Amino acid sequence: MGKMTKINIQTFGCSSNISDSEAMAGLLRDAEFEIVNNLEDSYIVIINSCTVKGNSNIIRNMRRIVKNHPYKKIVLAGCITPDLISDAKNIKESISVIDTHNIKNIVSAVEETLNDNYIDILGKQDIEEKKINLPKIRKNPLISIIPISSGCMSSCSYCSVRLIKGKLFSYPMESIVEEARQSIKQGCRELWITSQDTAAYGMDMDGKQHLPELLRKLLDIEGNFMIRLGMGNPKHFITIADELIEILKNRKMFKFMHIPLQSGNDDILKTMNRGYTVKEFINLIDKFRSAIPNITISTDIICGFPGETDEQFRDSLNTIDKIKPDALNRSRFQPRPGTAAASMEQIQGGVIKDRSREITSRFDWIAFDCNRKWKKWTGNIIIDEKGKDETWIGRNAYYKPVIIEGDVKLGDVVKVSVKQITKHYLMAEIV
Question: Are strands 149-150 and 169-170 parallel, antiparallel or unpaired?
């Protein structure tokens, strides 16, 4: 099997993983492999995995591939834990494994696999070898996903990110700015700044938070583009909130913040080792909202953390009612091997499921209510995605998804008027 072998990449998890897949695709293309979107057309499959919420999705997907395509070669990549490797090799022993720290070696992993040499490339090589300024095949040609660091400053008791990716390693500012500059030259209209905790950027270098400085340098780049800031830990956002508010007012910034709450009860937050209180979290949201009315707030909640009582869960519901987020990512707690929470007393699966359902139905009303204020809104959106059935999806300055029909193309900026709202998006007409 030589060059131009067809490879399909399947991606699970966060925008950092999407960025890794784009970089692996770029490196493989430069090595004269062909990247295909269809699993059926491929000779080799790369599964870029995320195990933060457990292994079940990855394992289910792998079983399906092995059952339907027993002769396809498989490379397991991404955020990999020892238990995922053993589960995967129980399904198919002849696979190669390459973890998130080693994506620069994907070409070697693929070539060895094609020659029936199944290899494991694991562990940090040269302190992460920054995953930046690598060639990329973008999932969306308009969006450049730029990782600014790897690993984490925090040590939340439920999370395996620190175990898998290690301590925080911030990439050099000039490398990030250069990647942004090249992305804009290549026609990207949106820069997604991503990491496990964007707010902690630079703290490994000198103990100081350098995110505001980085964002200001990115905003100084010439060109017509928007920046979306990715998730950050509230405890780190609190200390730079004033600077961030001024930065978010820039016309090139999406007025959007992803700030995970995880629990609305102080005792649970303490057991989670999150480093902030519910009151501090609410004050932070209030601060952003009073400075930037209509700012879009996205948050996360974990249902069924070990030891969470019905009353403590009610506190989470009440906090969600208070902050009224525009978007809510709900996770059912799953113990991750090696984490402190895995050895705590677990809650029954049925209870967790009920709580997840309850928070979902409660949030549906909030989401619809949040979108009410956009009814009859008129303004510009940037078209950044093809929708279903001849529709297009655009984003306004507040990163609200707006669905339209019409003769437009990716990258167009069009003036629209909102005619209808749903809990998930706004529906508009071109004016």
Answer: antiparallel
Using left for φ > 0, alpha for ψ between -120 and 50, and beta otherwise, residue 80 falls in beta
The CATH code that applies to domain 143-370 is 3.80.30.20
DSSP H helix total and E strand total for the chain: 13, 19
pLDDT per residue as tens digits for the range 69-128 = 988 999 999 888 888 888 899 999 889 999 888 888 899 889 888 888 888 888 765 544
Residue located via tokens 């009440």: 318
Residues facing 11 on adjacent strands: 48
CA angle, corner 18, sides to 230 and 73, nearest 5?
Answer: 160
The SS3 call for residue 314 is helix
Interatomic CA distance for residues 142 and 157, integer angstroms: 37
What is the reported pLDDT for 128? 46
**What is the distance between the alpha carbons of residues 93 and 89, in angstroms, rounded to a whole number?**
4
Where in the sequence of the chain do the CATH 3.80.30.20 domains occur? 143-370
Half-sphere exposure of 102 (CA within 13 A, CB side): 22
Strands 296-303 and 256-258: parallel
Residues of the chain with CATH 3.40.50.12160: 6-121
The CATH-assigned architecture of domain 6-121 is: 3-Layer(aba) Sandwich (3.40)
Closest CA to 325 of 357, 282, 379: 282
Half-sphere exposure of residue 72: CA atoms within 13 angstroms, side-chain side: 25
On whether the 378-430 domain is CATH 2.40.50.140, my answer is yes
Task: Convert 248-286 to b/e letters by CB count within 10 Å (16 or more is b).
Answer: beeebbbbbbbbbbbbbbbebbebbebbbebeebeebbe
| Residue type at position 245 | I
pLDDT tens column, 9-20: 999 888 888 889
Residue of 198, 144, 193, 145 whose CA lies nearest to 168? 198
| Number of other CB atoms surrounding residue 4 within 10 Å | 8
Residue at token pair 């040590």 = 155
How many CB atoms sit inside 10 A of residue 346's CB? 16
57, 62, 71, 356 from 85: Cα distances, Å = 14, 12, 19, 29
Distance (Å, whole) CA 46 – CA 110: 9
